[in-house]
Automatic annotation (TrEMBL):
One of its GO terms (molecular function) is phosphorelay sensor kinase activity. Its main location: membrane. The chain crosses the membrane at residues 152-173. Its EC number is 2.7.13.3. This is histidine kinase. SUPFAM superfamilies: ATPase domain of HSP90 chaperone/DNA topoisomerase II/histidine kinase, Homodimeric domain of signal transducing histidine kinase. It comes from Evtepia gabavorous.
Length: 400
């Protein structure tokens, strides 16, 4: 999964989080508006009920029975002396006499568990009561300082929630990415292993018959030379197949490193001797450049490190005309050890370098493998091009 795909997924999650938060805020706002409507619906009848209760000739006349019936309310008027002057459908358990403390209590809360609302009139206090359990009354007090901080807290909580959602999404995306990457790596590994196996069998036959033709003295020299070319090119194909397998395993982190203590001077001498004994092409020379003082030891996989150096040496022979001088050397630099392979070609341009961005030239697979082996050891491979071709491997020294 590319980085832009991860950003798209993160943006989608962020938009989802914003949508969810918007819906929650809209729902909360709708609830508040609905509550306000209910409160207005509660207060509006109380105003009308007060207008419907009129004192005429010492008696109260009431015309708002329909309003009471709509909300199942009861009504009473408490005089200034605390005595109930008038009532309509008042429950029997509700008292007929009140003192100052009683009035102060039920005007804010409940009267005998009945939620009530009150309205002051010139002749007393009009009290409207609803059925028990129909309304929840709660008084909330906030300081102005806290009220001013509420928007800030809201914004902070929004971003905190958004960060939590994005973090959870990142964890899930990372897990899915790993699973998807593992499946792709396994599929690629199976495909490359299958192709490599299919190539090796006919390639071995080609190399075997080419070797026999090359050694057959009955053939003309030109035919024997052609057989030698076939054998060498077949070996090149075999090396490329091996490099492809190893590159894939290192790229997918499927190649376990078998690190051991490695003394560099004997290791480099043996590498140079093996390369010379394998048949260095005519017109090439190999020189070993080692310092006078002892080299440090490394924690390295001997097989992989030898493979990297062999690839560089073969690259110098394969892509240079006869007369090239190849140098293999090492030295200590700071807390690292520097290994290099260099070739100098008189009156000839240096070979093209490996470039990871565009896949490099045809011989780039071997150089890519060199870079991967260096990275697997915690080091770095650097390629230089000028009058000479130079590759430096900077590897960490073995801790003392």
């Amino acid at each position: 999964m590319k980085l832009k795909h991860l950003w798209k997924a993160a943006g989608l999650v962020a938009l989802s989080a914003i949508l969810i938060l918007t819906l929650c805020l809209a729902g909360l706002l709708a609830l508040v508006l609905r509550s306000a409507q209910i409160t207005q619906f509660w207060n509006a009848p109380l105003t009308k009920l007060s207008q419907s209760l009129v004192l005429e000739e010492g008696r109260y006349h009431f015309t708002g029975e329909d309003l009471l019936a709509q909300q199942d309310l009861w009504l009473m008027l408490v005089g200034r002396d605390g005595q109930v002057l008038w009532q309509y459908n008042k429950p029997a358990e509700v008292p007929d006499q009140y003192d100052l403390l009683d009035v102060a209590a039920f005007t804010r809360w409940y009267l005998e568990d009945y939620p009530v609302q009150t309205r002051i009139r010139p002749d007393g206090l009009l009290v409207a009561g609803a059925p028990k359990g129909s309304t929840w009354k709660l008084t909330i007090s906030l300081s102005e300082q806290i009220l001013h901080l509420l928007p800030v807290w809201g914004v902070l909580l929004f971003f905190l929630s958004l960060i939590c959602v994005l973090a959870l999404a990142a964890l899930l995306l990372r897990r899915w990415f790993r699973q998807d990457q593992q499946a792709r790596d396994e599929a690629r590994s199976d495909w490359i292993n299958g192709i490599s196996h299919d190539i090796r069998t006919p390639l071995s036959m080609v190399m075997g018959y080419a070797g026999q033709l090359e050694a057959d003295s009955a053939l003309p020299p030109a035919r024997r030379d052609q057989a030698a070319i076939i054998r060498r090119q077949s070996q090149t194909i075999r090396d490329l197949v091996n490099d492809l397998n190893l590159t894939m395993r290192l790229d997918c982190q499927m190649q376990a490193l078998r690190k051991t203590k490695l003394d560099l001077a004997p290791f480099l001498r043996q590498t140079a001797a093996d390369f010379l004994n394998s048949g260095l092409a005519e017109g090439f020379s190999l020189a070993l450049d080692l310092p006078d003082q002892p080299l440090p030891s490394l924690e390295a996989d001997e097989f992989l490190l030898r493979r990297a150096l062999n690839n560089l040496l073969i690259n110098c022979v394969r892509h240079n005309p006869p007369g090239a001088v190849i140098r293999l050397g090492a030295r200590q630099t700071g807390k690292a050890c520097l290994l290099w392979v260099e070739n100098t070609t008189p009156d000839a341009p240096a070979p093209p370098l490996y470039q990871e961005e565009d896949g490099g030239p045809a011989h780039g697979t071997g150089l890519k493998l060199v870079a991967q082996i260096a990275a697997a050891h915690g080091g770095q491979a650097t390629f230089f091009q000028g009058e000479t071709f130079l590759c430096q491997l900077r590897l960490p020294m073995r801790p003392s």
